[in-house]
Write a structure and sequence with these properties.
heterodimer; A: 300 residues; mainly alpha; Ferritin; B: alpha/beta; GMP Synthetase, Chain A, domain 3; three-stranded mixed sheet; 7 strands; elongated
Chain lengths: 300, 173
């Protein structure tokens, strides 16, 4: 069966031989992601900075997506498994576009797959909140997703007017998607927080557990400073008040207490945006990149 | 079947119009509102179709590309290019009136209107939307949302409390 024939279901294409056209990201038959990817770098913007910024936004989505996908076959209810898988898929779609854009503007011959599957840990630019994972604790998944998606939604909202056409387009689709993710997490936070004594205790404990990773979300990197001035990026420090007010609304309704816990801090001012990660990212990459590294060039 | 008599632009439009969505095959891609343009080039030998994805990660777009290429090759075009563009983002408001009718006939509740996006922050929704979604089986307005996320990226799961049937609802974006 050739790739040009139609399929009865979306899964039939998985069984075909795609020769040199196969790719890793979604499996077989995946092609160039969108026409906008090859748009020129906006005037006055350093391509290296733009590539780094696309990696920041893309790695946040990719690594968070991978962590959410760990719930597949492990969620407490089928509906929640489907929901978390759907959210992971939306974020993977955003990641593909941003990594493809990073690969295009850095001009080092790396496509989205090379960036996702062959990049070493020190080159990942995601925040720790994306990588720490849920340890199969559903309340922790709710807490992490609430914090991550409330923050990402505020970022994407401001990126709608980014001078980079790919970032603006990803934001245009992403705002709609991430608003659903945030509301999903907020409703579960409400249900668990304002539920039984046991569900309240576990929801509060989960929130306390991930809170040290909040501070990093609002720390501005040098790349973000330069690109905010150029009209491409958002200074994350500027969205803190908006994020806090949304979180306070959820906490109040859910009878949860805003944790008073110090952030994880930096090492000589460096964190995830500079490639310094917790040991958890190594675990993620070992799983996510293992197959691609053991079978270089393999496609399916 | 190659029909050399009809003008190329008409043949191309007709071929594209017949391609259906892989996950909701009661809808054509036209009904779904993902076809953004059909251009015939090179004196009628080549055609370029522009489509837009529904959700960022929707894997169905790959099957759509395949099916468009096949349909246009069968319509006699030697060179077929299928482009994907992201902007402006797809909205369920682009689903045609015929598409909405077909969804309901197949037991899937069509989306309500979204309208233009407001520019401020997206308000938090701590409870399921109260919009009336009618049961596509019995027409009752007494339906509940079971899950915001359904079997495909674009649908939610609901249940009718009158006839007790579960059904999918194309959620508004």
């Amino acid at each position: 069966m050739s790739a040009s024939e139609s399929h009865d279901t979306a899964y039939d294409s998985l069984t075909e031989d795609h020769g040199a056209d196969g790719q890793w990201a979604f499996g077989t038959g995946i092609e160039d992601v969108a026409a906008e990817i090859t748009s020129p770098v906006p005037d006055g913007v350093d391509p290296a900075d733009l590539a780094q910024y696309c990696l920041m936004l893309g790695d946040d989505a990719l690594i968070c997506s991978h962590r959410l996908s760990e719930w597949t076959t492990n969620a407490p209810e089928l509906e929640e498994e489907v929901a978390l898988a759907n959210i992971a898929l939306d974020l993977l779609g955003q990641a593909r576009l941003l990594l493809a854009r990073a690969g295009h503007v850095e001009q080092a011959g790396r496509d989205e797959d090379a960036l996702a599957y062959l990049r070493p840990e020190l080159e990942f630019r995601n925040v720790a909140m994306a990588e720490i994972g849920d340890e199969l604790d559903f309340a922790r998944a709710v807490a992490r997703l609430l914090l991550f998606s409330t923050w990402r939604l505020a970022l994407l909202q401001r990126l709608l007017t980014s001078r980079d056409p790919v970032i603006a387009a990803v934001a245009g689709k992403g705002v709609k998607e991430v608003a659903y993710h945030r509301d999903y997490a907020a409703r579960w936070a409400l249900r668990l927080g304002d539920g039984t004594a046991e569900s309240h205790r576990r929801m509060q404990a989960a929130l306390d557990g991930v809170w040290p990773y909040v501070e990093e979300l609002f720390r501005t990197s040098e790349v973000e400073v330069a690109l905010t001035a150029a009209g491409v990026a958002v200074d994350p420090a500027q969205i803190r008040a908006e994020v806090d007010s949304v979180l306070d609304e959820v906490f109040a309704a859910a009878t949860l207490t805003r944790p008073q816990r110090p952030g994880i801090g930096t090492i000589a001012g460096r964190g995830g945006r500079q490639g310094l990660h917790t040991e958890k990212l190594g675990h993620v990459l070992a799983v996510m990149q293992g197959l691609a590294r053991q079978h270089p060039g393999a496609t399916w | 079947m190659v029909n050399g008599a009809a003008p190329a632009a008409v043949r191309a439009q007709a071929a594209v119009a017949a391609v259906v969505d892989p996950e909701m095959p009661m809808l054509t891609l036209d009904d779904l509102g993902v076809v953004r343009g059909v251009e015939v080039r090179a004196g009628g030998e080549a055609v370029r179709v522009t489509i837009t994805p529904t959700y960022s990660g929707c894997p169905a777009i790959e099957v759509m590309r395949d099916d468009l290429r096949t349909a246009l090759a069968e319509a006699g075009f030697a060179a077929v290019e299928v482009r994907t563009v992201l902007s402006p983002p797809w909205s369920t408001d682009w689903i045609s009136a015929a598409g909405r009718r077909k969804l309901a006939e197949h037991g899937i509740a069509p989306p309500a209107g979204v309208g233009p996006r407001s520019s401020g922050p997206v308000p938090l929704a701590l409870s399921a939307p109260v919009d009336v979604v009618r049961c596509p089986h019995c027409g009752s307005a007494a339906t509940d949302e079971l899950s915001r996320f359904g079997p495909t990226a674009c649908t939610a799961l609901r249940r009718c409390t009158a006839c007790r049937e579960p059904f999918e609802h194309v959620k508004e974006i």
